[in-house]
UniProtKB/TrEMBL annotation:
Assigned GO CC terms: cytoplasm
Alphabetical list of PANTHER family matching this protein: CLUSTERED MITOCHONDRIA PROTEIN HOMOLOG (PTHR12601:SF6), EUKARYOTIC TRANSLATION INITIATION FACTOR 3 SUBUNIT EIF-3 (PTHR12601)
Composition skew (Acidic residues), residue ranges: 20-38, 179-202
PROSITE patterns (alphabetical): CLU
Protein name: Intracellular distribution of mitochondria
Record field: compositional bias (Basic residues): 1242-1255
GO BP of this protein: intracellular distribution of mitochondria
Signal peptide as annotated in the record: none
GO molecular function list: mRNA binding
Domain Clu: 354-605
Amino acid sequence: MSTVASNKPEEVPPAVEDGAVAEEQAEEQAEEQAEEQEQATYRLSIIAPNGSVIPVVATAAETVLDLKQVVSETAETMEYTCFYLALQGKRLNDFSELGEIEGLEARGGGGGDGSAEVAAQQLVVVEDQYTEREARAHVSRMRDLLLGGGGVGCAGVDARVAGVDAGVSVFSTVRQGEGDDSEGEGEGEGEGENGGENDDEGSAQHAFRDFEFGAAADASVLEVLSTSAAAGRQAVPACVRHLALSGWNPVPRHRQLQGDILYVLATTLEGQTYHITAGEDGFFVNASTMTRFNGDASGDGRAHSLAGLLRGLSGKCAQGWRRVQGEMQTRDAAETQAFLAAGQAARPWVVSGSGVAGYDVGRTQAQAQAAAGGESLRDWNEELQSIRELARGTLAERVVRDRQLQRWHGEFSDAAVAGAMAVVEGSVIALNPTDPPEQHMFLRDNIFYSKGFDGRATFAGLGGDAAAHVATGKDVAGVRAVSQADVAGLCTLGSVVVDYRGVRVVAQSVVPGIFRRPEATAIVYGSSIDGGADGADGADGVAADGEFHRLLEPVARSLHLADHAVGSGGRVLRVSADVKGLVGTDGRRYVLDLFRMTPVDVEFAESEADGAGSETGSETGPAEPPLPPYPHRLVLLRPELVAAFWEASVRKAAEEYAEGARGGKDPTASEQKSGEGAEGDKDPETIERPPFQFSLAFSPDAFTPAHDPADSALADAVRSASQHLRDVVVAAFARDLAAHVATPLSGSALTAAMHQRGINMRYLGRIASLLAPDAPATRNARRRVVFEMVARAAKHVLRRLFRALPPRRHAEAFAAVANAVTGVAAEKESHPLLGSSLIMADVREIVAQRFRFRLPSDVVAAHIRGHEHALLREVCVKAGAQLRLRAYYFARPAEADVRAAVERGMGAAAIRITKATKRAIKERVDGVLAQALGVAARDVANLAAVAKTGCARASFADEALDAGRAALAQGQRALGLELLLEALALHEQTFGVAHAQTARCFAAVAHAHFDAGDAVLAAELMARAVVVAERTAGLDDPVTIHNYLNLALYEHARGRAARGLRLLRHALRLWAVVDAPDHPDLPTAFNNVGVMLQALRRYADAQRFFRASLDARAALLGPDHVLVASAHHSLAKAHALAGDFAAALHAERAAHLLFTAALGDDDPRSRETAAWLAEFTANAVRSARLSKSARERLRDAVDAVGAVAAAEQSDHPPPPPPPSKGHLPIDELLKFITGSSAPKPRGARRAKGPKGSKR
């Protein structure tokens, strides 16, 4: 039978259709089940051998290893390090995810009310047998816990890598305050405390009682950075006197056959010494002495943990262990969480201690063991590529992959920094010792090291060593960009750039086969000649492998790079010819030399780098010679600028297209001659418009010898982007600084703001020249820009001096540079290179060369005098220096000022002055007057390494955070808060608690809850953000300061005004360290202080701060600015609360006049001030007619309304007080007091005051 073809659609038989539907439904059910499995939670109870039970709620994505970490960090079970978890008697694999474990039941996704229906499943901690590795790890952990000393959570941080006192938090000390034990920490603290705080006697001694406005930073400004009190509060008690490996190690062979692994020597607090054996089953006391070895057991004492054994031997150890457990239980996880890597811990620039701990042989043993392990054969590259190749299809898989990547980068960075320091110090032998030192290469711990010099003349045409130095940093940024694209099959190396003692070292993981025959890892993509395709003859110099070309497409698309021809052979590449692609012996495809991933800043290169540049900015007058040429030609645009220019171009093209559509014009009509054809007679509405199309891409090789001159379109695009940066973006940023849209508080904040806008730091001079030198509104911003140029120039001077001087004189060199830039002349020059005048001449020359700006010869008097501490901080941070915490004087102080400061520090006003007290004061004053000015070499506590890593952001955690913010912006509050909490959980899983990204997420979630009205939860989350920011960003970092400011507002909103003031005072003390009293954000802080003081009914003090806010805004913005009017309005209400209606009337009249002049009579603010003005006028008349007794009643009633009015000036008012007459408006209060039935003044109403600003 034949079939006839038909044009009708074929009908699907019902059975087949039902099967397809069933299959589709099955797939949907499988996806839903997989999603539910990912969101499922597990209620577990972990039972320890000592009887402790740890309740845990975990997700399916977490592993057994995560549960073991919980056991090790819990106070009751922290002595267990060698164990496994068992479910129903079956041992669980450490790397198994909970969702994959058979027999482990979940309670469903979301964690709803079903938690009570499913009983917690029990996991049992089973003590495992020790190996030598496990035994050594256990002894190291017990040393951290039993020897006491430093705060819990900082243990394990390598001080050599992280620096002295790294990762310290002082928040617990600041929050509790001096002698403040009255405030509880319970849930009901807000209500109870508020009543206590509002008592006149209790609130008399608030944190701002002795605040001085406009005071310049004195020598005691650095006391706020002291960690002594926090270290004493966080220190754990010692349980033993000595604990280290015994001198009887290594274990003799005959004892190894009996299970001995290693020997430990312990001395208890009672003074008894024990020789302890670590065996396969645990620890026991042996019969050895200091002079005779006997490995046999001495007595019946035996325990699986070393802490358990010592508790049985020493009663004081048992008592101390209970105290350690108590300390662990009372501390927040943010304070105790260990860092995943030492590089994540913030390094303070001033340190309270010297970093010298007590005598301990165990530290020497640990250091020797680490040095011996420096030549380990850990395959860093294989680990990295294996992690990148992990599955990432589901939420759980992405979280696991990101967490492993972050952990690997942290460990690699620590190892790279330690190796780079060893390279600079000469502790590593070069692979090519016969070559010049600049060409030396090193291999340590399977990490490849090279120095950032142009030893092989690769950058001879671009600036030599200066270009090579920049290229190393650009290469790390390129690695980060390629890693962020996350293309499967495209591999990059682990890369870290380390600056230490004036030498830049590049640390990279090793490409498989790179040390074998050259043909084993031949370059198959890009130029095979160092320095790009310069001089390449096409096919011989440039390769263009098709597979590499395909893999690089997502990278090029994310960076807006175009395919372009390079070399005489016309090979087409997607990235720069300098990028090299090769295939390793493992079969993977690697890209190297990623320093040119963005186009050239051609406008800057042609005007500043080619010959003598033009005069961009100067404060020295027209007589100065032309600026010297820029030191190198490797001047590239930032990726942020390329992206911003691309977006601006798209927006402009779309607007033109839309304008053409509205006008009925054909965008192609301009290409046709007028009058030709019949198209000109058509109705505009009938013209068929082509769809909107836009194409803009850039060539990273434009304006380089590798670029094809015939491709002028790509070159024009690069030039347009460069002009956009020079003429538009830089000028817009200068306007933002002048208008206080951008208000950077430190050099790092300024750098971040410029980089966010795509501005390179070489434009600092241009920005300074665009800021008016004498205008009050720009004085602070211009000083900040000048400080950044001076600090960066000082870093270059230090780099030169460190290479020229022996290591023993590096501290002296740093002190000389620090003193020179702060205006302290050396009394005696110890070296010809360390003269103050010579150093300052070098600084001025470097600023002129690198930032195209001429500093005046009296730059110290013009910009630095009075702000030396802020500049000293910038120099220390950039150079990696840590100074001893003390009072630094940069000019000889007057004896009266020193005496006043000493008496204030000793609390002389509150103690009885005796002869002994007078003698002590005199001795301190004499000591201060006798000390040398500035920084001395002995003040330099450490010169640490500064590292840049190629670690990309964890995109999934950031996506979750952005999704929560987007939901809140769309008004979906419940969904947004839920997404933000999920984002916070993802950040903790990916980065851990002690990470800067987690601190940022804590702050974002806290702010969202504060906007939602939950001040209590917002304060708790922001408190954790403060702690983590202190530990990861720094005690005085702008992020930490802003977190303190926000936390102060949150505490005030929940009814803790006194605590809010204390936190706010600490933030302003930090502010004095990093900046000056003329910062444009300081008036906002003063306004918030006034609001909080009003909540405490300290009306006179509140008026001082409202007045200070008004004066500061008037000085910065001029007397006619709208913000000045708002300050007048706030001051008027403060006067009204104090019962001074005449002053309130005067201030409100000034606010109304300013509002109407600037905004008109119809603006809501103008109408509001008019209503308040009428009310204050009537109240002033009534107040003048009141009897004395009525005035007293009025004063009492005004006290009752204080909290409500203060709340009106805050963004988020605290919970309303109990009902009373205090909630009435002023005119109603007057009716109640006087019994008057006079009519309400016309237009009078209860208006909401301007909201208190927050950061």
